[in-house]
């Protein structure tokens, strides 16, 4: 399986490059960067150190994507939708981990479902995807619990709440027959009022180099269930992305998520 990495200079791009070393059935075929990046033309190993991959860094998406079976993409919404369209046109799979997609961008991806094969997931770790599964059961079993979602990430992160926090919120809301948009509370700064019954609150921390932490409270008057996940290293996301790429090989067209990849649906 030939894997190309988009956003190869980024934190996740570099984690995926590292994860591709020593894979028995997968190799790096391309490393894609933003147009004009200084790394263009150098061996991809220059981005993480160690032995050469024999793959030059490129800023030409069509060329990089044409040479792969699956593109792994942790970049930004505008880049991800652009690359996904190229993948669909060239018949290549894509694993998309980028978060902060607008409704329109998500819609653009869903519209490609009959033209290509995609795994789209805000969190590629096994642990968070199990947590989503457990949360669905818990939210249904505790309809009166107050649900609050807390997340903490590194100081560089630009979207908030995290894509994972929003997904946790969507799953909890759906388990209760609600739409997250109708019950989400992102900001309590401007209100002086008790908590609205049935609402789902979000709290965000940005500090230091925290890789990624998520905690869901399901609080009743006399007890509280907490579902928590802590990522200690970006390896968990990179390994999950490679696993998702493997899953896509030979799949019918469609948009899948990590619940499909992990067999949790
Ligand atoms: N699904 C999951 O499991 C995970 C998802 N993420 C998500 O992945 C994304 C990337 O995270 P992270 O690696 O930390 O971010 P970084 O900022 O470290 O990396 C982003 C990469 O994308 C490139 N990029 C950004 N915008 C464009 C563009 N318009 N065109 C081409 N390239 C672009 C950047 O290039 P340049 O430096 O030149 O701007 C950089 O190489 C985020 O949305 C994050 O939330 C992160 C971890 C896990
Ligand atoms: O930006 C990050 O770093 C992460 N982003 C993802 C998100 O927004 O949920 C997943 C992970 O927690 C790391």
TrEMBL record:
<dbReference type="GO" id="GO:0050661">
    <property type="term" value="F:NADP binding"/>
</dbReference>
<comment type="pathway">
    <text>Amino-acid biosynthesis; L-lysine biosynthesis via DAP pathway; (S)-tetrahydrodipicolinate from L-aspartate: step 4/4.</text>
</comment>
<protein>
    <recommendedName>
        <fullName>4-hydroxy-tetrahydrodipicolinate reductase</fullName>
        <ecNumber>1.17.1.8</ecNumber>
    </recommendedName>
</protein>
<dbReference type="InterPro" id="IPR000846">
    <property type="entry name" value="DapB_N"/>
</dbReference>
<keyword id="KW-0457">Lysine biosynthesis</keyword>
<dbReference type="InterPro" id="IPR022663">
    <property type="entry name" value="DapB_C"/>
</dbReference>
<dbReference type="InterPro" id="IPR023940">
    <property type="entry name" value="DHDPR_bac"/>
</dbReference>
<feature type="binding site">
    <location>
        <position position="42"/>
    </location>
    <ligand>
        <name>NADP(+)</name>
    </ligand>
</feature>
<dbReference type="GO" id="GO:0008839">
    <property type="term" value="F:4-hydroxy-tetrahydrodipicolinate reductase"/>
</dbReference>
<dbReference type="GO" id="GO:0005829">
    <property type="term" value="C:cytosol"/>
</dbReference>
<keyword id="KW-0220">Diaminopimelate biosynthesis</keyword>
<feature type="active site" description="Proton donor/acceptor">
    <location>
        <position position="153"/>
    </location>
</feature>
<dbReference type="GO" id="GO:0009089">
    <property type="term" value="P:lysine biosynthetic process via diaminopimelate"/>
</dbReference>
<dbReference type="Pfam" id="PF05173">
    <property type="entry name" value="DapB_C"/>
</dbReference>
<dbReference type="InterPro" id="IPR036291">
    <property type="entry name" value="NAD(P)-bd_dom_sf"/>
</dbReference>
<keyword id="KW-0028">Amino-acid biosynthesis</keyword>
<feature type="binding site">
    <location>
        <position position="154"/>
    </location>
    <ligand>
        <name>(S)-2,3,4,5-tetrahydrodipicolinate</name>
    </ligand>
</feature>
<dbReference type="Pfam" id="PF01113">
    <property type="entry name" value="DapB_N"/>
</dbReference>
<feature type="active site" description="Proton donor">
    <location>
        <position position="157"/>
    </location>
</feature>
<comment type="subunit">
    <text>Homotetramer.</text>
</comment>
<dbReference type="GO" id="GO:0016726">
    <property type="term" value="F:oxidoreductase activity, acting on CH or CH2 groups, NAD or NADP as acceptor"/>
</dbReference>
<comment type="function">
    <text>Catalyzes the conversion of 4-hydroxy-tetrahydrodipicolinate (HTPA) to tetrahydrodipicolinate.</text>
</comment>
<dbReference type="GO" id="GO:0051287">
    <property type="term" value="F:NAD binding"/>
</dbReference>
<feature type="binding site">
    <location>
        <begin position="97"/>
        <end position="99"/>
    </location>
    <ligand>
        <name>NAD(+)</name>
    </ligand>
</feature>
<feature type="binding site">
    <location>
        <begin position="163"/>
        <end position="164"/>
    </location>
    <ligand>
        <name>(S)-2,3,4,5-tetrahydrodipicolinate</name>
    </ligand>
</feature>
<keyword id="KW-0521">NADP</keyword>
<keyword id="KW-0560">Oxidoreductase</keyword>
<feature type="binding site">
    <location>
        <begin position="121"/>
        <end position="124"/>
    </location>
    <ligand>
        <name>NAD(+)</name>
    </ligand>
</feature>
<keyword id="KW-0963">Cytoplasm</keyword>
<dbReference type="GO" id="GO:0019877">
    <property type="term" value="P:diaminopimelate biosynthetic process"/>
</dbReference>
<dbReference type="InterPro" id="IPR022664">
    <property type="entry name" value="DapB_N_CS"/>
</dbReference>
<comment type="similarity">
    <text>Belongs to the DapB family.</text>
</comment>
<keyword id="KW-0520">NAD</keyword>
<feature type="binding site">
    <location>
        <begin position="7"/>
        <end position="12"/>
    </location>
    <ligand>
        <name>NAD(+)</name>
    </ligand>
</feature>
<feature type="binding site">
    <location>
        <position position="38"/>
    </location>
    <ligand>
        <name>NAD(+)</name>
    </ligand>
</feature>
């Amino acid at each position: 399986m030939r894997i190309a990495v988009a956003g190869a200079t980024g934190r996740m791009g570099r984690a995926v490059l590292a994860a591709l070393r020593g894979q028995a059935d997968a190799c790096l075929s391309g490393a894609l960067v933003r147009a004009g990046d200084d790394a263009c033309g150098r061996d991809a190993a220059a981005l993480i150190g160690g032995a050469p991959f024999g793959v030059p860094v490129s800023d030409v998406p069509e060329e990089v994507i044409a040479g792969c079976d699956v593109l792994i993409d942790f970049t930004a919404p505008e880049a991800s939708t652009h690359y996904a369209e190229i993948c669909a046109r060239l018949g290549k799979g894509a694993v998309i981990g980028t978060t902060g997609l607008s409704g329109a961008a998500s819609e653009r991806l869903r519209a490609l479902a009959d033209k290509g094969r995609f795994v789209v997931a805000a969190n590629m770790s096994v642990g968070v995807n199990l947590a989503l599964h457990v949360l669905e059961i818990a939210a249904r079993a505790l309809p009166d619990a107050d649900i609050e979602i807390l997340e903490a990430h590194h100081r560089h992160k630009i979207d908030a709440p995290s894509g994972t926090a929003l997904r946790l919120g969507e799953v909890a809301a759906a388990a209760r027959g609600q739409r997250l948009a109708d019950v989400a509370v992102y900001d309590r700064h401007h209100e002086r009022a008790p908590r609205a019954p049935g609402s789902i609150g979000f709290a965000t921390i940005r500090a230091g180099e925290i890789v990624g932490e998520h905690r869901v409270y399901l609080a009743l008057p006399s007890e509280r269930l907490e579902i928590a996940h802590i990522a200690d290293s970006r390896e968990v996301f990179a390994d999950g992305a490679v696993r998702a790429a493997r899953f896509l090989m030979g799949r019918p067209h469609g948009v899948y998520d990590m619940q499909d990849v992990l067999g949790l649906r």
